[in-house]
Write a structure and sequence with these properties.
Length: 437
């Protein structure tokens, strides 16, 4: 089907209340009458929107990122305190710059001529035209990433309270409450992101309380990773009661007991990699029993099914999915079901430069509906009232904007009014409503 033949937007039981053609983002959080958006690409950092009238959202304030090599694409808010992350922008490309240095060192040890541009490009799976940019990055000193804490009691004038540096690439996704911030970050001496818990009760002076990592990450203590590259690392945790629910990328899921916040302790784990190829993005406990079971939901993140060596699409690999787990016994967690879409469920499922598969859901639940982002598959609303048979009850696939070839529905939140806030990775922000009945 040609784009010109597609009736836009594509929707079932979902109607659009408003749209903003704004820069793409990594996270949207709604509290009260305000939506907070973390943007993916510098210089735009964080936007605060007044959404009291959902048909006329209004930009209240914006925070820009000064360093063009950093982005601030995640945000959390509790009361009048806002935390934003600072992470190396385009970090996968940055990893190739680090690899560039090591390749040169390896060739030097062997003696002889240094690698040519063509040889470097082949080794790094990039274009030859990318090498000068990688050279520039490899020779540059970078400030470490971290997070910032803001006073947002006056929404149009956010006030910086603290700038907490961590290390390396910095902070990715995180959770927070009134007492603590649960930060996923690189730290010196560790391989990949770990958990660092900070006391933020005095927001001007965040204080480290404890750390948690998987065996193999603490290389400074002599541990050695048994996995490829940075496959196993903490994506982020979500707290429920005395436990943190940790998504650990290609290491699956972990449950961490934090009854003693100074001594986080792993009390359960489950890994379904392999055979499933896509990494675990979010692990969230359902705050009520279903079928007299303690249940959690897990969502993986879709990556492009492309062979890095030749750019060809890899057929036969399952796309990222939604999972429902029985977690009644942390020592014996087990999947009850998964939910998947067919590529025919979106006209942009095979768009070049896009991804078709799951990514995220709203990180809180009041009922059995999960509002999931599916990248080029848009918004999918899935009911888990029967945890063995998740069922789609609505969807919304926005049209691409700002010259993009496809939508890339990235993050989502819902509010107490039942409204849906949908953020695109490339460009665009929608406020939606599920039609009842």
């Amino acid at each position: 089907m040609m784009d010109s033949q597609i009736a836009l937007p594509l929707a079932h039981r979902v109607k659009r209340l408003s749209h903003l053609d704004m820069p793409g983002g990594g996270q949207v959080i709604v509290q009260g009458d305000y939506a907070y958006i973390g943007h993916l690409r510098p210089p735009r950092g964080t936007t605060i929107l007044d959404v009291s009238d959902p048909r006329k959202p209004r930009v209240v304030s914006q925070i820009d990122v000064v360093d063009p090599y950093m982005h601030s694409h995640k945000v959390r808010v509790v009361g009048d305190v806002m935390i934003t992350n600072y992470e190396r922008y385009n970090y996968l490309f940055m990893r190739k710059a680090e690899r560039l240095r090591s390749i040169r060192r390896e060739w030097n040890k062997k003696g002889g001529n240094l690698p040519t541009v063509a040889e470097l490009a082949k080794e790094l799976f990039v274009e030859e035209a990318d090498i000068p940019k990688l050279e520039e990055m490899a020779g540059r000193d970078f400030e470490p990433g971290g997070f910032k804490i803001w006073d947002i009691s006056v929404k149009d004038k956010p006030r910086l309270l603290a700038d907490q540096r961590t290390w390396g690439l910095g902070v990715h996704r995180f959770d927070m409450d009134r007492h603590y911030a649960y930060i996923s970050t690189e730290m010196e001496g560790f391989h990949g992101n770990i958990l660092v818990i900070y006391d933020i009760r005095e927001p001007r002076r965040p204080t480290e309380v404890s750390r948690w990592w998987m065996p193999g990450q603490n290389v400074a203590a002599g541990e050695l990773p048994t996995w490829r590259g940075f496959d196993n690392r903490l994506h982020h945790t979500l707290r429920y009661g005395d436990h943190l629910y940790a998504s650990c990328w290609h290491a699956g899921i972990r449950v961490i007991n934090v009854a003693d916040i100074t001594q986080p302790k792993t009390v359960g784990e489950y890994n379904y990699h392999p055979p499933f190829p896509e990494p675990t993005h979010t692990f969230m406990r359902v705050p009520f029993k279903i079928f007299d079971r303690d249940v959690a939901v897990v969502v993986d993140e879709e990556h492009q099914h492309v062979d890095m060596r030749n750019g060809e699409r890899q057929a036969g690999q399952p796309h990222a999915a939604l999972w429902v787990f029985d977690i009644s016994d942390f020592k014996n967690m087990k999947p009850l079901s998964s939910f998947q879409l067919e590529e025919l469920d979106s006209p942009w499922s095979r768009s070049r430069g896009g991804r078709f598969g799951a990514h995220q859901f709203q990180e809180h639940m009041e009922g059995t509906l999960l509002y999931c982002t599916w990248f080029t598959g848009g918004l999918r609303i899935i009911d888990i009232v029967d945890p063995f048979r998740p069922k789609e009850v609505g969807y919304f696939i926005p049209q691409p904007v700002s010259g993009q070839v496809c939508p890339m529905t990235n993050d989502i939140d819902t509010d107490s009014r039942g409204l849906i806030y949908l953020l695109d990775r490339f460009a665009g922000f929608d406020i939606l409503e599920l039609e009842r009945g």
